[in-house]
Specification:
Blueprint lengths: L1 E6 L7 H4 L3 H10 L2 E6 L7 H10 L3 E5 L13 H8 L4 E10 L8 H17 L3 E6 L2 H10 L5 E3 L6 H9 L3 E4 L9 H9 L5 E3 L21 H12 L3 H15 L6
Parallel strand pairs: 1-2, 2-3, 3-4, 4-5, 5-6, 6-7, 7-8
Length: 258
């Protein structure tokens, strides 16, 4: 049994392989023994579609937040985000964080948005889903200054030094298909060293398909390959890593039932 702790199933293009039918995708997920998906919001305009999926499928939960690469004319109020966070099956805040790779100039707006998400997550006692790209130092600094209480370091691709700081905060490290890439040496090091009780697996689908599907559109059923890559690196059985990461997810999100 596996859990995909981070996907964007609402954005998967169903046309090529699934004949436009999400039921075929969900059947594939079930066949792969993926028992639960966390569908992560990156843009509030997508919330209605995400909520419709969550309502239809009991094995999907979701988060609320705005990705650091999304620009808005007006940032949502704390009150609005809290109202969504209190909705049934909304279990996390995010995707949030910092991204200095795709953004230039003054990025104070990005940092302020990040602080808002942290503030709401702490107030609602909900985990944060953290994105960081070429911004790890500032990400950790803001997490420390804002005393973020619970977090998942999503699609972790930083080095062990950054991982160690996040682990000191008590956060979870979530590994994606990158861990299966041959030359992802620093991610391999993290995968070998991260304490098992702080490990999660994800696809980030439709992005970052794992080997042997690298370059294709990713999907939640392929979280099995992420799990296998970690098991190989640690000299464990894939079933062991699957159980541990499932238990970790359920510990972090006790409202989820399988």
């Amino acid at each position: 049994m596996y859990i995909d702790s981070h996907c964007h199933i609402d954005t998967i293009d169903l046309t090529p392989e699934f004949n436009g039918d999400i039921e075929l995708l969900m059947a594939e997920i079930e066949q792969a023994k993926v028992s639960h998906l966390l569908c992560v919001c990156i843009d509030l305009k997508d919330l209605a579609n995400i909520q419709a999926l969550v309502k239809k499928y009991p094995n999907i939960s979701y988060s609320v937040g705005t990705h650091p690469n999304v620009t808005l004319d007006n940032e949502p109020s704390d009150e609005f985000l809290i109202s969504i966070a209190k909705a049934p099956k909304c279990i996390a805040i995010g995707e949030t964080g910092l991204d200095y790779y795709r953004n230039e100039g003054c990025l104070d707006w990005q940092r302020e948005r990040f602080r808002q998400h942290i503030r709401i997550a702490n107030a609602q006692n909900m985990p944060l889903i953290i994105h960081t790209r070429q911004s790890a130092v500032d990400t950790v600094k803001i997490l420390r200054e804002s005393a973020a209480e619970q977090a998942i370091m999503h699609c972790f691709a930083e080095d062990w030094q950054i991982a160690s700081q996040c682990l000191e905060f008590g956060y979870y490290i979530s590994l994606s298909g990158i861990v299966s890439f041959k030359n992802a040496h620093q991610v391999h090091e993290v995968a070998k060293k991260v304490p098992l009780d702080r490990l999660l697996i994800e696809t980030d689908s439709p992005y970052l398909a794992p080997m042997p599907y690298r370059g294709k559109q990713n999907r939640p059923s392929w979280v099995v390959h992420v799990c296998q890559a970690i098991a190989d690196l640690r000299g464990m059985k894939v079933e062991e890593v699957a159980k541990i990461t499932t238990d970790n997810f359920l510990s972090l999100f006790p409202s989820v039932t399988l």
